[in-house]
């Protein structure tokens, strides 16, 4: 653990007690995330990706091991408003316009009216929704709603951005576009990003660190440091380096998958 | 317009049934009256006829059936008679400039409406406050809810006279305040139940979102729970306003009240004038319809303005 360690998990475990017996969602997870890292979590459904993100954000309490965020407990980090969290479902409030939804965290955190307006139009621009500020969520497609929810998490100054399959519901073209923009945003802001995905190319394209997980019990089977440069045009996906990392991720996923 | 056709059809059928029911309902008093007027009725004598079914009476004395539609004190008045009585006590009164006289049903409706609105206001406020207390405190949730439920199992007809007596004892003049209390007593419950449901309607993910912002309890109330509860709130208002009207009318029933639709119903009963009862009942129904329509319009306008998909 260095001075720059943002998240540090040691032997982290989380067992849900359900009516059908205990579910080991996380088991002995050890992981360090450095400041400025772009970390992708990849693995089959039910391997604990969402759960790990929720533990980081203090939405779920671990049952074993330790975790610190910014050197303090997740709870203290949450109280200091260290995260922007993009949920698997967009979750916009139906009685607020798109602009109103993005303004929600800003109102709660007490940003000034002028600052709010400036930030709303900036993040709307960022996710290609300029002109939709006054529309209501039901007037937008699912993909547009998801982009609005990303804009909502970008509107305030959190150092850590946690995203749970934010692009899962989007088509390939929009996804490529948003991936590019996310990289640009990450480079510009120096945020530390935790990103859950089911797509190997997406994980490899975006990440500096790829965490491969496997289910029952949920655990980390491989952590791959990407040697790709920070500057990544879309066609980097055709280079041998890229394909090699993608291959390693696929092997990791296959190894963690027991076909019993 | 397309909505009006089914509604009108139902209305026509109901009025038709009502009109048909007048014949069997009124055949006995019609025959008694005809017999006193010298007509020959089979069988002879009111007492003997009690053993015979109305259908037989109608068959054997078919020429006197129509008289049942023109009685002064019918057991069941015809739609036309009720219509005339309502016109006599409302529109005609206005034309004569006696809108606020004691014989005008507009005056009595206004008395009832006032108490209903006060009771509605009081009951709705209590319902909202109760729901907020229940949502935010486990203690009140466990202590308040059972009492709220028990309160609704006590028949209001039994409770109403007591409330009036107690109000008089503590020196409250007139019927207005106790009537509003009775009305609120019936009205708060649907509001309370719906608001508890509405305030708890946000999904876990919506609450988690606010948690990541470290929002305070007050902020999550104003920005999430309250707006999310509004559709539930308006639905409960429609039930609540109708209940408030029933409460007021019940509050006007115990002897002593002289004004209000409830008092007219009671007086009609005591003096054997079914026409007065029926016209008061109809005005109560019209009042209820107007109140519910008003709340419904408020709901549609507010929710649309707020961006809920109508
Ligand atoms: N609140 C909960 N109560 C009980 N079990 C839970 C709860 N949340 C998650 N689990 C279980 O924990 C395991 C991990 O769930 P998690 O949502 O983290 O998976 P995931 O990797 O995000 O899957 P997906 O890719 O489908 O989103 C699953 O077996 C799930 O059933
Ligand atoms: Mg998940």
UniProtKB/TrEMBL annotation, chain A:
Q: Which UniProt keywords apply?
A: ATP-binding, Lipoprotein, Nucleotide-binding, Transport
Which InterPro entries does the entry mention? AAA+_ATPase, ABC_transporter-like_ATP-bd, ABC_transporter-like_CS, ABC_transporter_ATP-bind, P-loop_NTPase
Q: Name one GO molecular function term.
A: ATP hydrolysis activity
CDD domains (alphabetical): ABC_NrtD_SsuB_transporters
Among its keywords, does the record have Plastid? no
Q: Name one Pfam family in it.
A: ABC_tran
Specify whether Kinase is a keyword of the entry.
no
Q: ABC transporter domain: which residues?
A: 7-240
| Coiled-coil region list | none
Sequence similarity:
Belongs to the ABC transporter superfamily.
What is the official name of this protein in its record?
Sulfonate ABC transporter ATP-binding lipoprotein
Q: What organism is this sequence from?
A: Actibacterium pelagium
From TrEMBL, chain B:
What top-level branch of life does the organism fall under?
Bacteria
Q: Which Pfam families match?
A: BPD_transp_1 (PF00528)
Could you state one GO biological process linked to this protein? transmembrane transport
Q: State the membrane topology.
A: Multi-pass membrane protein
Per UniProt, subcellular location reads as:
Cell membrane
User: What's this protein's name?
Assistant: ABC transporter permease
Alphabetic keyword roster: Cell membrane, Membrane, Transmembrane, Transmembrane helix, Transport
**InterPro entries reported for this sequence:** MetI-like, MetI-like_sf
Residue stretches spanning the membrane: 7-27, 117-136, 148-168, 180-199, 230-251, 271-295
What does UniProt list as this organism's lineage? Bacteria, Pseudomonadati, Pseudomonadota, Alphaproteobacteria, Rhodobacterales
| An example Gene Ontology CC term for this record | plasma membrane
What are the ABC transmembrane type-1 domain coordinates in residue numbering?
Answer: 123-306
User: Chief localization class?
Assistant: membrane
């Amino acid at each position: 653990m260095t001075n720059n360690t943002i998240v540090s998990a040691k032997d982290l475990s989380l067992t849900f007690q359900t009516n059908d017996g205990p579910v080991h969602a996380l088991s002995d997870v050890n992981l360090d995330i450095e400041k400025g890292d772009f970390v992708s979590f990849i693995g089959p459904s039910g391997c604990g990706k969402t759960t790990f993100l929720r533990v980081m954000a203090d939405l779920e309490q671990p049952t074993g091991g330790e975790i610190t965020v910014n050197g303090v407990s997740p709870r203290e980090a949450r109280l200091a408003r260290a995260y922007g969290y993009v949920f698997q479902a967009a979750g916009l409030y139906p009685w607020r316009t798109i602009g109103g939804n993005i303004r929600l965290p800003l109102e709660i955190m007490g940003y000034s009216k002028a600052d709010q307006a400036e930030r709303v139009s900036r993040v709307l621009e960022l996710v290609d929704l300029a002109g939709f500020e006054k529309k209501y969520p039901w007037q937008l497609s699912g993909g547009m709603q998801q982009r609005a929810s990303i804009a909502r998490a970008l509107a305030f100054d959190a150092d850590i951005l946690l995203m749970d399959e934010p692009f899962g519901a989007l088509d390939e073209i929009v996804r490529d576009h948003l991936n590019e923009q996310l990289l640009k945003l990450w480079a510009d802001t120096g945020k530390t990003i935790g990103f859950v995905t089911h797509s190997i190319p997406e994980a490899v394209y975006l990440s500096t660190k790829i965490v491969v997980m496997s289910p029952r019990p949920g655990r980390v089977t491989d952590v791959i440091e990407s040697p790709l440069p920070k500057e990544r045009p879309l066609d980097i996906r055709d280079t041998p380096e890229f394909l090699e990392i993608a291959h390693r991720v696929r092997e990791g996923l296959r190894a963690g998958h027991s076909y019993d | 317009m397309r909505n009006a056709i089914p509604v009108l059809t139902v209305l026509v059928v109901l009025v038709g049934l009502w009109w048909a029911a007048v014949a069997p309902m009124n055949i006995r008093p019609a025959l008694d009256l005809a017999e006193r007027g010298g007509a020959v009725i089979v069988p002879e004598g009111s007492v003997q006829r009690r053993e015979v079914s109305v259908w037989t009476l109608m068959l054997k004395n078919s020429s006197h059936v129509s008289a049942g539609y023109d009685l002064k004190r019918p057991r069941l008045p015809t739609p036309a008679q009720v219509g005339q009585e309502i016109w006599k006590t409302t529109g005609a009164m206005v034309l004569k400039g006696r809108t606020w006289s004691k014989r005008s049903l507009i005056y009595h409706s206004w008395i009832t409406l006032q108490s209903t609105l006060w009771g509605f206001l009081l009951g709705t406020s209590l319902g909202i406050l109760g729901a907020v207390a229940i949502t935010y405190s486990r203690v009140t949730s466990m202590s308040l809810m059972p009492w709220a439920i028990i309160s609704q199992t006590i028949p209001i007809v039994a409770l109403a006279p007591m409330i009036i007596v107690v109000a008089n004892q503590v020196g409250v003049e007139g019927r207005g305040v106790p009537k509003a209390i009775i009305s609120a007593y019936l009205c708060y419950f649907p509001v309370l139940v719906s608001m508890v449901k509405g305030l708890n309607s946000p999904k876990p993910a919506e609450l988690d979102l606010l948690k990541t912002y470290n929002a305070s309890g007050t902020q999550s109330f104003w920005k999430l729970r309250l707006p999310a509860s509004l559709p539930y709130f308006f639905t409960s208002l429609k039930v609540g306003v109708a209940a408030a009207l029933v409460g007021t009318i019940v509050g006007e029933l115990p002897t002593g009240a002289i004004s209000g639709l409830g008092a007219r119903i009671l007086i009609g009963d005591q003096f054997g004038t079914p026409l007065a009862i029926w016209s008061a009942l109809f005005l109560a129904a019209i009042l209820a319809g107007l109140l519910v329509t008003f709340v419904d319009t408020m709901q549609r306008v507010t929710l649309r303005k707020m961006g809920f998909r109508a």
